[in-house]
Amino acid sequence: MHTIYLDNGATSFPKAPGVGEAMLHYVNENGANVNRGVYAQASSAAMTVLETREQLKELFHFPGDLRQVVFTPGATYGLNQIIRGGLHPGDHVIVSSLEHNAVMRPLTELRKNGVVFTRMPADKNGQTKVNSVVPLIRKNTKMVIVSHASNVCGAMLNLKDLACICKAADIPLVVDAAQTAGHLPIDFEKLGLAALCVPGHKGLLGPQGIGALLLDKAFAEKLSPLVTGGTGSASDSEEQPAYMPDRFESGTMNLPGIFGLNAALSFILEQGVESFYAHETALTERFLLGLKDVPVRVAGPGDARRQVGVISVDFEGRDNAEAAFALERDFGILTRCGLHCAPNAHRVLRTFPGGTVRFSIGYSTTEAEIDAAVAAIRQVASK
Prior knowledge:
By secondary structure, this protein is an alpha/beta fold.
């Protein structure tokens, strides 16, 4: 049976052309570490690392120095670096009501140490009016941390207006772009962000285990590193280097992952992220239109202009896990079912605790696949 992959919100598939080959080339033909040698293979690997930082800087219109582009093991690590490395007892944080556990679990743990958080309210469709953040601001508010788009229902935040509010209040704005990086244009400079956190394996079409933090210089200086150790630099000292990016890049880098990400970013920059956005928006609209007369509930905005290509379906009256299993068994459609590591988002959307079946679109998804998914949902819902 032919399978239709609609789980790009979890990880992209297929990866960008050349990703696997780039990783294999590093493993089989290079294999050297960086910052630990000056021989040709090490220098070649170091140049790929530098080039990948440049690609990230270009893609996200990052105005800072390349040294402020930090590689991480993924978005969760990057968010923990900001949250655990930048907050202290007595600090207050504002988040959206749709946050992923990558934000909520570290914040919940830090409550034991006196860090508090407040959620911006959202309506039952997952829509947040960003001016609702204004009355939530306190004298001790140290950050606003938000998901650019919900991993549950795709609802997008109006980052432009939120950034203006944060700038006026002189509060750093931290953005989790797990569901938007590579899917739509993001301009770090115009938004005036403090930090942008991205995974390499979702919309950026690279491998798992690699991500990046793009950090405003002044904001980075206030963060304490989560991990310290060998960097290959300042080896005469047992103190962590204070300069970037070494301050946040201890240990051996995931070089196979960086080589793969380099190939993926080359593809995205060549194709243009705007083309991906237009393609995925058109497919999202087609999907939502196709579900209009199907007896299921679409949780979220239900409007392609207000969401990314993440569509959550509630098969009301039956177990969503059974519906997801039937979609794979009978139609070869691969989805994700459950609460998607964002329980409060489901409370807002009124799909807790049953969760939803999530369909997430990628750059290679076709109109025929969307039509097949809609037809399959119709059949499963009618049984």
